[in-house]
């Protein structure tokens, strides 16, 4: 059984043609990409390193990392999103190796292969996020970096990420997120420890609806990112 939700895959497939439209439903991803990219690069210094982007979608983060001279592989299970990602390379001239494969299967194929593994905005969309965390850890080299981002589970995150973003501000299509699948930082940190990852940093991401600007900070109540190191052998 593949660790994927067919409904979630279809949801993103229906929007796949809009991945690279910065004014579409994917506008928030375009807006936060410089923040995510900068956070990963500050910790991992990705130039010249082998990087895996798990749940790459249309390739927004993958191409950003390739632009910083990383050797990037992007994986996803949504055919239409991968087709869009590959087509966009013709326009951008970037080099990214895109593959349709589950992260668990790739972990069996290439254990300990990557200097850096990113899995951003994906854990809340899969049936077994702990399995994804374990696979990402397995794919990283000893001493390598692994990054996750997801949504916290509490009343504030429901208010902001579901009611606010989907129903009031219309930043995201309604039904994008299932609150029951949101993940507390303590839960994610435990999964990381179970997978022999050491948490190095935890940072929040906030959105100001008045200035329409995203920023990184210490408020992890809604969106947050976590940076981990793979324990040496």
UniProtKB/TrEMBL annotation:
Designated name of the protein: Ubiquinone biosynthesis O-methyltransferase
GO biological process: methylation
EC number: 2.1.1.222, 2.1.1.64
Catalytic activity: a 3-demethylubiquinol + S-adenosyl-L-methionine = a ubiquinol + S-adenosyl-L-homocysteine + H(+); a 3-(all-trans-polyprenyl)benzene-1,2-diol + S-adenosyl-L-methionine = a 2-methoxy-6-(all-trans-polyprenyl)phenol + S-adenosyl-L-homocysteine + H(+)
Cited Gene3D superfamilies: Vaccinia Virus protein VP39
Taxonomic source organism: Ferrigenium kumadai
Name of encoding gene: ubiG
Pathway given in the UniProt record: Cofactor biosynthesis; ubiquinone biosynthesis
Cell division recorded as keyword: no
């Amino acid at each position: 059984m593949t660790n994927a939700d067919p409904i979630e895959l279809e949801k993103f497939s229906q929007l796949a043609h809009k991945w690279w439209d910065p004014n579409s439903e994917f506008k928030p991803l375009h807006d936060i990409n410089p923040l995510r990219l900068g956070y990963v690069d500050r910790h991992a210094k990705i130039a010249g390193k082998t990087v895996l982007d798990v749940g790459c979608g249309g390739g927004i983060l993958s191409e950003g990392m390739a632009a910083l001279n990383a050797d990037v592989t992007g994986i996803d299970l949504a055919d239409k999103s991968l087709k869009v990602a590959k087509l966009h390379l013709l326009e951008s001239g970037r080099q990214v190796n895109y593959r349709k494969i589950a992260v668990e299967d790739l972990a069996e194929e290439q254990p300990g292969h990557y200097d850096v593994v990113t899995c951003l905005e994906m854990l809340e969309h899969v049936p077994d996020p702990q399995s994804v965390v374990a696979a990402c850890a397995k794919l990283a080299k000893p001493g390598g970096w692994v990054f996750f981002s997801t949504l916290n589970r509490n009343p504030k995150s429901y208010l902001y990420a579901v009611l606010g973003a989907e129903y009031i501000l219309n930043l995201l299509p309604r039904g994008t997120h299932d609150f029951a699948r949101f993940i507390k930082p303590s839960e994610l940190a435990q999964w990381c420890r179970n997978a022999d990852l050491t948490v190095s940093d935890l940072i929040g991401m906030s959105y100001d609806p008045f200035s329409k600007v995203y920023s990184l900070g210490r408020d992890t109540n809604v969106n947050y990112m976590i940076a981990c190191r793979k324990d040496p052998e």
